[in-house]
Amino acid sequence: MNSMFTFTVILAVLPAIYAMNITSLNACLTKEQSLQVDCRYEAKSKEDLKYTFTLEEAQKPSRNIASNKEPFSQDQAFTKKVKVEVVKSENLVRLTLPQLEKGQEGTYVCKLEWPGAAPIMKSVAVYKGDLLACSAISLLIQNTSWLLCLLLSLPLLQAIDLTSL
User: Fold this and answer.
1) Gyration radius of the chain over CA positions
2) pTM of the predicted model as reported, rounded to 2 decimal places
3) Contact 131/28 with Cβ under 8 angstroms?
């Protein structure tokens, strides 16, 4: 009897655990030199999503950037500067920080939570000199293997006659 109860609880909890996942976390610079961090997720739950973005730097405590959780203490360097957009139809939480500065470089962490599920998080290193421009091509390169990018670009290379080199 006790083992049957345990088995039932496991079967009830497992789908919730595996249904929540951060599929990608990408950072790029917009044309206006703003930092854009896209946190894409997979979720089967229709419950309210809670997000938190933090910045971690070597040998320093983490800094709170933005969150929709209460209570939340935002780092003064980010007060009234950041914009967070939740696009549920695209399973996306987007952080935009205008004019990325040296003191805002480091590891950005996206943490997502749904009621009744364990929090999930993913991080991305953000250094201004290393960031790609936000465009379809740069995001394709970030999220796709080089071999697939090469295969997809072959028709373009043939069109401009670079394959004969």
Assistant:
1) 20
2) 0.71
3) yes
Domains of the chain listed by start with CATH number: 2-132 (2.60.40.10), 135-165 (no CATH)
Which residue in the block uniquely carries the two structure tokens 């929090």?
Answer: 119
The residue whose two tokens read 């003064």 is: 76
Assign 66 to helix, strand or coil.
strand
Using CA atoms, how far apart are residues 113 and 17, in angstroms rounded to an integer?
11
Residue 54's CB: how many other CB atoms inside 10 A? 20
Residue in 11, 106, 24 with CA at minimum distance from that of residue 65: 106
Q: How far apart are CA 109 and CA 67, in angstroms?
A: 12
The three-point CA angle 104-79-131 to 5° equals: 25
Q: Express each pLDDT in 19-78 by its tens digit.
A: 579 999 999 999 888 999 999 999 877 788 999 999 998 888 899 999 998 888 888 888
- In 3-state terms, what secondary structure has residue 78? helix
